[in-house]
């Protein structure tokens, strides 16, 4: 792990050379994927860092999404002064993510978890599109800080009671009283807001709408997965107490996903619509994680990786349209199939990936989550059926409204697509559909 971190830090010295940074980010992704095939629970231990299947999948996703986000931000490259700072903050965010997914200490995990908020906030404030980006940044900052302060207190209490902060330690909270339940809620709540859980998701659409394309891609592709990763790391401490609260989280995840899906059917801002997709998908992930079953954990990890690739690709597509017509409104930017016909295929394949059609990773993960939730309670079939139906409905709504109809813009002609853009979209689509052949790479061993 230390070699990987040093290699990423060395890239910061080449912040003015976009092609070099892009090339080596993908090279590091391939080398990491080839050299880290393993059959062990934990490996590459040292310097309070280590990896397992869970960390391996999310670190690989971090490299891939950050590399694609840099490739998608060519408008920033034109300004030489601001482009260096942009690359520096992207690489700094990547290092924070690598440390978050690899540290083996709860306190260091909390520090790196919160540290990733700083470069994200700077990306939104520095390279956002509208004046409202200040309000969006404050929403994200205060939602996260408000929820994470109780987690810090609980980590200190954990050290005073258990005597260690090593992740995976055998200590567990076995008492079902008010104090332990409050401890449990406080520890998990920070990750539920980051996931984000319904009722605490308002910061996400605001941050996505105001963020640059790289910020949206990294936020949807990797940063939302910090919530799921943190829940998986913290739940073993509260496995006894969690059994009494599974009904609450499963109900909130499914009902919240259904309500957000209904909101998607009346949304006209394309970036806000894709942001609400994340809330609906993460509701199902929350239910799968809280069941604490092997099916639920593995399916949630697969959906997180698949959603990271799919939502990142959709944000990239939305930005390509925005750069040409100058608006995010689907009422104005409709009829793209006649305006940009070569992009129609990419809209289609990423849309069916978003609704969980085979052979995408989303399909494999959702099947595993369905098995987990239906095995926990057959009553969940009603909510899951509505959630899957509405997922297909709002995806078809997005595709049909954006691709068909009469194009209202005064723009008569433009480039229907560049080779660079097709390559970026292909690199989103390939792992989303090909990794299902080697899905054992994403198999989570509890």
TrEMBL record:
Q: Which one of the record's GO molecular function terms can you name?
A: NADH dehydrogenase (ubiquinone) activity
Q: Any stretches that span the bilayer, and where are they?
A: 6-33, 45-66, 86-109, 138-161, 181-204, 211-232, 244-266, 273-295, 301-322, 343-361, 381-401, 422-445
> What membrane topology does this protein have?
Multi-pass membrane protein
Q: What catalytic reaction does the record list?
A: a ubiquinone + NADH + 5 H(+)(in) = a ubiquinol + NAD(+) + 4 H(+)(out)
Q: What class of enzyme is it?
A: translocase
**Which InterPro entries is this protein grouped with?**
NADH4_N (IPR000260), NADH_UbQ_OxRdtase (IPR003918), ND/Mrp_TM (IPR001750)
Q: Which UniProt keywords apply?
A: Electron transport, Membrane, Mitochondrion, NAD, Respiratory chain, Translocase, Transmembrane, Transmembrane helix, Transport, Ubiquinone
Residue stretches making up the NADH:ubiquinone oxidoreductase chain 4 N-terminal domain: 1-100
Any GO BP annotation: ATP synthesis coupled electron transport
A cellular-component GO term for this protein: mitochondrial membrane
This entry's Enzyme Commission designation comes to 7.1.1.2
What domain of life does the UniProt record list for this protein's source?
Eukaryota
**Localization annotation:** Mitochondrion membrane
One Pfam family matching this protein: Proton_antipo_M
Looking at the record, the residues that make up the NADH:quinone oxidoreductase/Mrp antiporter transmembrane domain are: 105-386
Q: What is its main location?
A: mitochondrion
Q: What does this protein do?
A: Core subunit of the mitochondrial membrane respiratory chain NADH dehydrogenase (Complex I) which catalyzes electron transfer from NADH through the respiratory chain, using ubiquinone as an electron acceptor. Essential for the catalytic activity and assembly of complex I. Core subunit of the mitochondrial membrane respiratory chain NADH dehydrogenase (Complex I) that is believed to belong to the minimal assembly required for catalysis. Complex I functions in the transfer of electrons from NADH to the respiratory chain. The immediate electron acceptor for the enzyme is believed to be ubiquinone.
Q: Which family does it belong to?
A: Belongs to the complex I subunit 4 family.
Mind telling me what this protein is named? NADH-ubiquinone oxidoreductase chain 4
From which source organism is this entry? Panulirus ornatus
What taxonomic ancestry is recorded?
Answer: Eukaryota, Metazoa, Ecdysozoa, Arthropoda, Crustacea
């Amino acid at each position: 792990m230390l070699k990987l971190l040093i290699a990423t830090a060395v890239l910061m010295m080449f912040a003015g050379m976009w092609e070099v940074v892009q090339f080596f980010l993908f090279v590091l992704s391939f080398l990491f994927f080839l050299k880290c095939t393993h059959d062990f629970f934990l490996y590459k231990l040292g310097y309070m860092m280590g990896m397992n299947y869970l960390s391996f999948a999310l670190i690989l996703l971090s490299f891939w999404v950050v590399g694609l986000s840099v490739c998608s931000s060519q408008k920033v490259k034109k300004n030489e002064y601001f482009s260096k700072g942009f690359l520096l903050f992207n690489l700094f965010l990547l290092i924070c993510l690598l440390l978050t997914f690899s540290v083996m200490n709860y306190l260091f995990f909390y520090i790196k978890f919160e540290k990733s908020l700083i470069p994200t906030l700077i990306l939104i404030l520095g390279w956002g599109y509208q004046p409202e980006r200040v309000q969006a940044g404050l929403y994200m900052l205060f939602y996260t800080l408000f929820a994470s302060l109780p987690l810090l207190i609980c980590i200190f209490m954990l050290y005073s009671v258990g005597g260690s902060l090593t992740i995976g330690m055998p200590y567990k909270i076995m008492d079902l009283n008010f104090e332990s339940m409050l401890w449990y809620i406080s520890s998990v709540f920070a990750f539920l807001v980051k996931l984000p859980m319904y009722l605490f998701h308002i910061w996400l659409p605001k941050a996505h709408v105001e963020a640059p394309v790289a910020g949206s891609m990294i936020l949807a592709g990797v940063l939302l997965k910090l919530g799921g990763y943190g829940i998986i790391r913290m739940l073993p401490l509260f496995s006894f107490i969690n059994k009494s609260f599974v009904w609450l989280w499963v109900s909130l995840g499914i009902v919240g996903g259904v309500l957000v899906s209904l909101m998607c059917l009346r949304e006209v801002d394309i970036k806000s619509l894709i942001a609400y997709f994340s809330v609906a998908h993460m509701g199902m992930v929350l239910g799968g994680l809280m069941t604490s079953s092997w099916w639920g954990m593995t399916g949630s990890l697969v959906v997180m990786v698949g959603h990271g690739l799919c939502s990142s690709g959709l944000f990239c597509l939305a930005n390509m349209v925005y750069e040409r017509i100058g608006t995010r409104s689907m009422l104005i930017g409709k009829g793209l199939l006649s305006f940009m016909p070569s992009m129609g295929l990419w809209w289609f394949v990423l849309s069916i990936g978003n609704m969980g059609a085979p052979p995408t990773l989303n399909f494999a993960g959702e099947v595993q989550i369905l098995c987990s939730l239906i095995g926990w309670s057959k009553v969940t079939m009603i909510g899951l059926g509505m959630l899957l139906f509405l997922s297909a409905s709002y995806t078809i709504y997005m595709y049909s409204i954006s691709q068909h109809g009469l194009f209202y813009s005064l723009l008569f002609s433009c480039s229907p697509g560049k080779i660079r853009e097709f390559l970026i979209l292909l690199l989103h689509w390939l792992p989303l559909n090909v990794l299902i052949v080697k899905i054992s790479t994403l198999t989570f061993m509890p």
